[in-house]
């Protein structure tokens, strides 16, 4: 494939990260995996001109125009689904040997934002990762709003979820992703609450999102004070951090072939999950849908 060919021929001295909105690439040339964001080394940066998928160009010649259409595609939305509910055409029979399931033990009750989809594109991206890597399937495409609440019982949290529409009529729309990231998190590092490898569509926050999140924290009486701005993203794959099979070129290539993944999205629902235990143990407890504007 063109993108794969370009990436394989690219020579860099240290590391790079990939932002499709800017097409900035930083790679770890030794193993094609990003180091932890908390300990990034000095890196060499090259930028692909998004108007021409040919040579990589110096950053000072970069143009801000994008190869992605700014017009929204017609939306053939798939309803936000519960665990195990997705179109039969998206079911992937493992083409590679399954990897060891995610071993990290998560905690508490968690709130997810769930999105509209363009022809089931997020679900298909998650299934693609299952097929390519043999990794465990993420139950639903989402962004985490609040993770690991332990101060509420399930019934108390369900009761509060039912009141979401009283304080948040509609979650502000998410802008188009700012990038594609593959990284490894280590618990205890700034902003990292677990030790996993993951690939994501990196989103951005704004004042409207921050206000909505503040209201959600108040509604659920979260005792911990928020620290810093929200860092929303949509994870496409999880893996154990040791010898992870995930790599940035694969994710980038898939996103380039499916440009709807780089569109802005409406938040369709907030769901409440019991995320205590390993990912295989997660359970959706309830879900509330936002009404269309």
TrEMBL record:
It comes from the Eukaryota. Keywords: Signal. Residues 1-17 form the signal peptide. This is Uncharacterized protein. It comes from Phaeodactylum tricornutum (strain CCAP 1055/1). The lineage of its organism: Eukaryota, Sar, Stramenopiles, Ochrophyta, Bacillariophyta.
